[in-house]
Structure formats: C-alpha cells, structure tokens
C-alpha cells in the first residue's frame, strides 16, 4: 500500500506540475496581450482570444509534433528527451522565422466571409469558437492517444462556427470534398511510399549476403535521395513565406542577380535539393569507405547507418511543421486581432510578432509537457520500428507532400506519417507470409505423422485390452500406451496451436489502427458540432 501511495503521489505531482506550467504560459499570454493592447477597444476580448490561441498552440505541440519525431524515438535513434528538445527548438524556429508576415484568416478557404455581411462581432465570435473547439478536440484526442490532423480540427471548427453564424451556404462544399478525399489519399500515399523505400532497402542491403559492401554502395544513394527530398520539401513548404527576403539576401552577394519571386517554384527547390543531394552522396560515401572496416555483416550494423539521417529528418520535419501548421493556431487569432484593430473582416491578416511568438512557443511548451504520450503511440504502439523503418517513414513524409503538391492532391501531414507507419508494418507482415506458409505446411506434415502414430498406439491399446488373460507385463504395457497416447494428443494439440498462431502474424496492432481511423473520421464533424455550440454560447453571453 505504501508503494502504491508513493507511485500515486509521484504521478499526481507530475501531472499537477505540467498543468501548472501550462496555466502559467496561458496566463502570461493573457496578461501580455491585455497590457500590450491597452489602448485598443475590446482589448479584453483580444486577450481572451490570445489565451485560447496559446491553448490551441500547446495542443498542436502535444498531438501533431509526435508525427515528426515519433518514428525516430521508437527506433531508438533519439531518446525522448533529445527528441523533445530538437523538436521544440525547430518547431518554434520554423514558426517564428518562416511562419510568414501574413496568414490566411480562414484556413483553406472553407467558408465565404462575405456572408458575414460586415458583421464584425459575429465573425470574431465565430473565430473564437472555432479556435476553442479545435483546441478542445485536440486535447481530447491527445488524452485518448489518437494522433489526429490539427488542420482538420481547425477546418471543422471554422465550418461549424461559420454555419452557426451565417447558415450552410457559408461553407465551400467543394473544399470540404477535397478534405474528405485527403482522408484516403494521405495515408495510402504515405503507406505506399514508406513501404516502397523499406522494400528497396531490404532488397538492396538487408537481404544481401555481404551487407557491408551492399551498405557502402547503396546507403549513400538512399541518404542522398533523402537530402534531395528534404531540401525540396523545406524550400517548398518551410521557406515559401519568407522566400522574397531570402532572395534579397542572396542578391546582396557580389555578381549575383536573381529575379525576386513570391514563392519558390518546384524547379528551383528541386535544383537546390539536387545540389545538396550530390554533395551528401560523396560525403557519406567517403565516410563509409573510411570507416567501413568497423561495420559488422548484420542488420544491426546497417541500422546504425541511418541514425544521423533520422536526426536530421526529425529536425527538418519539425521546422517545416512549425512554419506551416502554426497558422492553425494563429490564423483565427490573427483574424480576431485584425478585426478588432481595423474594425472589419478580411481574408488575410498581418501578424504581429507577439501573435507569431504565441504560436511558436505554445507549440514548444505543449510538446515538452504533453508530447511524450503521442510520441510513444506513433513510435512504438502501432508497430515496432527500427532505424531503417523509421527512415522509410521520414522519406514518405517528405516525398508524399512533394508529389501531392505537384499533382494538386489534398494531403494531411499527420495522415501521411501514420500511413507510413502502417505501410512499413503491413509490408513486414506481407514479407513474412512466405515463412508463415512454409511453417503451416511443415506443421500439417507433422500433424499427419502424429495422427498415424496416434492411430497405431490406439490400435495397440485395443489389442492389449482385448486379451482375456493378462499378466503383469500386459498391464504395464497398457499403462505405457495410455501415457504415449496422451503425449501424442498433447503434441497434436500443441502443433495445431502453433499453426494457428503462425497464421495470425500481425506486426500492426489492429486495435490501434481502428482507434486512429475512427478519430480521423470524426475529427471534422466533432470539431464542427462543438464549435457551433460554443458560438451560440458566446453569442448568448455577449448579446
């Protein structure tokens, strides 16, 4: 009882400490916003909106960031503490440095703001309801250890509040259709690409007799492809909002003159990735040739070669995520800030630095306090990961976004990452099917032989028992036959169990799959319903 009491006290004190830090951050944001905007009418309303934005940002950090670092932690490439530090630093950096000076106030254009007909108060209430609903849903999903899309959460929130404020005509149903399509496209694309890379690595390196020579030949190629993919991905998604400023800095160099573009083209990003990829290829190749004698001819040794690329992938994915998904927290907050200051409704709004900082630091705080739950879920509770599998998932996360953006397909980074985890797990099951079939065939032969022995022993027992006159040796033989028959029946039963178990090889936990897919499907409607309820509550309080 004392041991249980100590454990309970320790756990409760940790939970209270986390809650205390979270409340301290939210109150600090509330206070700063109130004092910083003291001369603005409705500044208390803006301060409350900032508090909700901080709450939303923390929930993004607690739920969404797990997709970036979960595979690296699950594969033991990074410890939990190191992963949280790297992700927190790069998430905040991405949000503050590359989050952009202007943000869409209505995520993905899912509602038509002209239907508000200049009713600024209704618009502000709708944005507050959307932000709070999305944050509450993310909080619930994190408690249930279900990684869900923060983009879909805020989309559902905006849709529900928009319908409550201006009716069903406010929603762009075509945009909602693309979001529904992303529920299928994202995990399928992510799973297929992750499985393809894993199979390619196994075929070219792991399944080879001389794994050391195969690794020296192919690891530089795979890492170079990763370098190209991530540089292209970061340029397209992480730097697009500060691209003009980057080009201006480059033009300051002697003999350099580049035309200023609003955002990088795929060709530009791809060429930058190619240059870095070629450099990485020769760097890794030279490193392996110099240290190749230290490699052992086994899978464990090959796995270690992918550790450093995984660390880079976790950092770069976090930077890109911070640059892009910070808008989920600060988009509605920026809209409220813009509407209160300018007294009108606009599709895009400039972002004060303090608003961007709320998003960036909020994501980092939420990750540090509540991120480990979802990191464990993504990294180890769906399927077992090693460095090669985690590397394949990271490749899927970047390449899927590049392919989808060029084809104009709607995708979700959360669904891509989880789809990649599913993909590598199901590939392992498929590859092991051949071994399972051989095992089942062997077990069937064993059962046939054991049944023959059982029939022979049963016949011998009947013959022994049929003798009218028995001597001591006959009774001893009967006892021995009963024992042999019992052993044979137990052997048949054991072999059947083994065969049944072999047929049920599952490297992906089905319960986890069902829970996650269910959470994906209900995210938009759940956030929408909650947002509509909150809008009517806020409206009732304010009128």
Structural overview:
The chain has 543 residues and is mostly helical. The chain has one domain (2-210, 297-433, 506-542). It has 17 helices and two strands. The chain has helices spanning 2-36, 43-63, 66-74, 80-98, 120-143, 150-166, 173-206, 211-238, 243-251, 266-291, 299-304, 307-342, 353-381, 387-407, 413-466, 472-503, 510-542; strands at 102-104, 348-350. The protein has a two-stranded antiparallel ribbon. Helix 2 (43-63) packs parallel to helix 13 (353-381) and helix 3 (66-74) runs antiparallel to helix 14 (387-407). The protein is globular, with a radius of gyration of 30 Å. The mean pLDDT is 84.
Features:
two-stranded antiparallel sheet, 2 strands, mainly alpha
- Average of pLDDT: 84
Multimeric organization? single chain
Beta-strand content bin: under 5%
Q: Per the principal axes of the C-alpha atoms, what is the gross shape?
A: globular
Count the helices. How many? 17
Order of helices and strands: HHHHEHHHHHHHHEHHHHH
SSE inventory with pairings:
Blueprint: H1 2-36, H2 43-63, H3 66-74, H4 80-98, E1 102-104, H5 120-143, H6 150-166, H7 173-206, H8 211-238, H9 243-251, H10 266-291, H11 299-304, H12 307-342, E2 348-350, H13 353-381, H14 387-407, H15 413-466, H16 472-503, H17 510-542
Antiparallel strand pairs: 1-2
Helix pairs in contact: 1-2, 1-13, 2-5, 2-12, 2-13, 3-4, 3-13, 3-14, 4-12, 4-13, 5-6, 5-12, 5-17, 6-17, 7-8, 7-14, 7-15, 8-10, 8-12, 8-14, 12-13, 12-14, 14-15, 15-16
């Amino acid at each position: 009882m004392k041991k249980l009491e100590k454990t309970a006290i320790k756990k409760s004190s940790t939970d209270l400490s986390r809650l205390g830090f979270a409340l301290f951050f939210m109150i600090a944001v509330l206070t700063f916003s109130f004092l910083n905007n003291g001369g603005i009418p409705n500044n208390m309303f803006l301060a409350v909106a900032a508090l909700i934005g901080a709450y939303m940002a923390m929930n993004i950090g607690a739920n969404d960031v797990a997709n970036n670092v979960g595979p690296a932690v699950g594969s033991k490439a990074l410890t939990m503490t190191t992963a949280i530090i790297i992700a927190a630093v790069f998430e905040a950096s991405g949000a503050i440095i590359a989050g952009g000076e202007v943000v869409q106030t209505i995520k993905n254009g899912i509602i038509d703001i002209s239907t508000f007909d200049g009713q600024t108060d209704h618009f502000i209430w709708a944005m507050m309801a959307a932000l709070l609903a999305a944050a509450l849903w993310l909080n619930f999903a994190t408690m249930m250890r279900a990684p869900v899309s923060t983009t879909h959460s805020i989309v559902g929130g905006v849709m529900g509040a928009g319908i409550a404020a201006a009716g069903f005509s406010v929603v762009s149903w075509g945009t909602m259709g693309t979001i529904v399509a992303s529920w299928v496209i994202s995990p399928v694309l992510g799973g297929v690409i992750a499985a393809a890379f894993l199979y390619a690595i196994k075929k070219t390196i792991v399944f080879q007799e001389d794994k050391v020579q195969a690794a020296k030949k192919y690891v530089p190629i795979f890492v170079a492809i990763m370098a190209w993919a991530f540089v292209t991905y970061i340029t397209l998604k992480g730097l697009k909002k500060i691209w003009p400023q980057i080009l201006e800095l480059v033009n300051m160099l002697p003999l350099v003159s580049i035309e200023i573009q609003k955002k990088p083209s795929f060709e530009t990003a791809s060429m930058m990735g190619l240059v870095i990829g070629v450099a990485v290829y020769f760097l890794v190749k030279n490193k392996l040739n110099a240290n190749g004698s230290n490699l052992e001819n086994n899978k464990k040794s090959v796995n270690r070669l992918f550790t450093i690329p995984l660390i880079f992938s976790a950092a770069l994915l976090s930077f890109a995520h911070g640059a892009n998904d910070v808008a989920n927290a600060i988009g509605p907050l920026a809209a409220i800030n813009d509407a209160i200051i300018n007294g009108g409704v606009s599709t895009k709004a400039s972002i004060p630095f303090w608003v961007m900082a709320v998003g960036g630091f909020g994501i980092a705080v939420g990750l540090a306090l509540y991120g480990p739950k979802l990191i464990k879920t993504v990294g180890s509770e769906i399927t077992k990961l090693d460095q090669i599998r985690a590397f394949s998932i990271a490749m899927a996360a970047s390449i899927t976004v590049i392919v989808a953006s060029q084809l104009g397909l709607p995708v979700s980074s959360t669904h891509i990452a989880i789809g990649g985890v599913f993909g590598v797990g199901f590939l392992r099951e498929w590859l092991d099917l051949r071994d399972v079939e051989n095992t089942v065939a062997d077990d069937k032969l064993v059962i046939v032989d054991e049944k023959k022995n059982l029939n022979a022993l049963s016949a011998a027992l009947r013959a022994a028992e049929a003798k009218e006159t028995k001597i001591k040796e006959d009774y001893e033989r009967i006892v021995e036959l009963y024992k042999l028959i019992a052993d044979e029946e137990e052997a048949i039963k054991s072999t059947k169990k083994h065969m049944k178990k072999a047929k049920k090889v599952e490297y992906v936990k089905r319960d986890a799959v069902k829970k996650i897919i269910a959470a994906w499907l209900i995210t938009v409607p759940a956030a929408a319903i909650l947002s509509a309820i909150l809008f009517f509550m806020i409206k009732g309080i304010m009128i």
